[in-house]
Amino acid sequence: MFANVPGAIAYFVVRKLPYLSIPSPSFLKGWAKKDALWSAQAAAHNIGHAHQYINLGNILLEIDRLDEAQSAYKKALEKEPNNIYALWGNATIALRQHNYHAAQTDLQTIYQLEPDFKFGEASLVYGQTLYALKEWDLAKRHLEQDIKRWSHLDSYIMLATIERDNGNIERAIYHLETMLFKVKGTPAFHHRKNSHFIRKAEKMLRTLKR
To answer: How many CB atoms lie within 10 A of CB 108?
Structure first.
């Protein structure tokens, strides 16, 4: 009976833990990435192209060494000012630090250079940043384009909220109902994955229709 315990623990760590949304401690992530970090640091020092600094920044970001990661991305941008991956890394750090103005600058450049970057993720994050900054007009225009291109559920809710706050109740209801109909046409796993957006939209609808 007791001999099975180590095997069960090992199975959980190797097969199950990587798929759970449990943040790992920084020291544990650092230990797991120590060889990759050493190699990336050596490549950045010895070769020093933008690509090497971006790779170093990505590893540092993954282990939560944000200041060092930002420094690596900035060195990459010194070499290639419009390198989209360095801009994305820099924006990611700015968002983690709640520096939305800095993130907006990088995300706007990314969107201008490659609107479909990260399969629409950059578009969504740019919309979320404009929303966080309360740039309502800019956010509304961008989110309208985002839902046409990508149909992000969060974009529908942000857009509906902006319309509601502007007194455009019918438009707000339209966006929420459109979102819910789109979700109903997706596979069950997608429906379950986005259940929090669905509940939020349904709650907003009930309030708007009173």
So the answer is: 17
- Full DSSP string of 101-138: HHHHHHHHHHHHH-TTGGGGHHHHHHHHHHHHTT-HHH
74 to 104, 127, 162: CA distances (angstroms): 16, 24, 35
Residue 181 lies in a domain: yes
Alpha helices, H only, 47-194: 50-62, 66-79, 84-96, 100-113, 121-132, 136-149, 153-165, 169-184, 188-193
CA 19 to chain CA mean position, Å? 18
Query: What is the predicted pLDDT for the residue at 184?
Result: 85
Band (13; pLDDT cuts 50, 70, 90): low
Inside any domain, residue 201 = yes
Per the CB < 8 A criterion, the answer to whether 72 and 55 are in contact is no
What's the total number of domains in the chain? 1
Average pLDDT value for residue range 144-158: 97
CA gap 173, 153 in Å, rounded: 14
In a domain, 6, yes or no: no
For residue 204, give its domain range.
151-210
Asked if residue 162 belongs to a domain, the reply is yes
| Residue showing tokens 């360095």 | 86
Q: Which amino acid is at 155?
A: S
On the question of pLDDT at 145 being above 60, the answer is: yes
d(CA 96, CA 174): 33
